[in-house]
Amino acid sequence: MIDLHAHIDLYPDPVATTKECVDRNLFVLSVTTTPSAWSGTAALAKHAARIRTALGLHPQIAQERQSELALFEELLSSTRYVGEIGLDGGPELKGTWDIQRRVFDEILRMCSAAGGRIMTIHSRRAATQVLDSLAARSEAGAAILHWFSGTRRELQRAVDQGCWFSVGPAMLAGEKGRTMTAVMPPDRILTESDGPFAQINGRPLFPWDVETAEKALAKIWRVSDEEARHRLMENLRRLANHVAPEKSDVFSHDPKS
């Protein structure tokens, strides 16, 4: 199974959650919300062969953490994965919009200068602006729009720009999420939990809950659960080779389970 977007460091017991992911042989992209959290979060997965840690600066705290851009640039050479980054157009964040834009554009500039990264991107109520920024920095790498909630027109533009998508149980629990997923290119979809923020029936999702998303995708694609999982593994292999593949990267390996 694959969880391409989980906040492992923000679970009540990150060590136990990491161990469970290892025991279940999950492929996990552990995202961070601030550069200062990256080293500690990466240490959680030091001996976890199938977990990678992404370097992030979440748009919802861009105003408070913009001073960490220098640290972001310093750490960027340590990882091929970036996230969670992006923009948030929620009304409660209107006052931070200009700072969000500056921070996101600066991160994309850094990724471009570094030769490109695999990026997991937040675009709540800001899909058009995120896509504008990505179009201006197409060399920044592979863009994965996590839990995409834009319009059908914005979705088509994202597809045309070559974006990838990660979908999870919470997104696929709703009719809109399933409808949007049905028109996403199947070869550019991966699963995510977005735990512990995302919930089902009031319970925070864990990385292994992506099995629910796999089953939902099987129904959408009209294939068996086994075929859906096989497709997702193939997608992960291709994504991992999108930006400067390294032999040592777990996501470039042929998984045996």
What does it look like?
The mean pLDDT is 95. With 257 residues, the chain is an alpha/beta fold. The chain contains 11 helices and 10 strands. The termini are close together.
Strand and helix layout:
Elements: E1 2-6, H1 14-23, E2 27-30, H2 38-44, E3 51-53, H3 62-65, H4 69-75, E4 81-86, H5 97-113, E5 117-122, H6 127-136, E6 141-146, H7 152-160, E7 164-167, H8 169-172, H9 175-182, E8 189-191, E9 199-200, E10 203-204, H10 210-221, H11 225-240
Parallel strand pairs: 1-2, 2-3, 4-5, 5-6, 6-7, 7-8
Antiparallel strand pairs: 9-10
Helix pairs in contact: 10-11
- Output the helix-strand order: EHEHEHHEHEHEHEHHEEEHH
Distance between the first and last residues' Cα? 8 Å
How many separate helices?
11
Structural class by sheet pairing and helices: alpha/beta
Give the spatial strand order of the biggest sheet: 4-5-6-7-8
Q: Evaluate the radius of gyration.
A: 17 Å
For the secondary structure, the number of strands is: 10
Low-confidence runs? none
Basic shape: globular
- Proportion of residues in extended strands: 15-25%
Secondary structure: helix percent: 40-55%
Averaging pLDDT over every residue, what do you get?
95
**Which sheet architecture does the biggest sheet show?**
5 strands, parallel
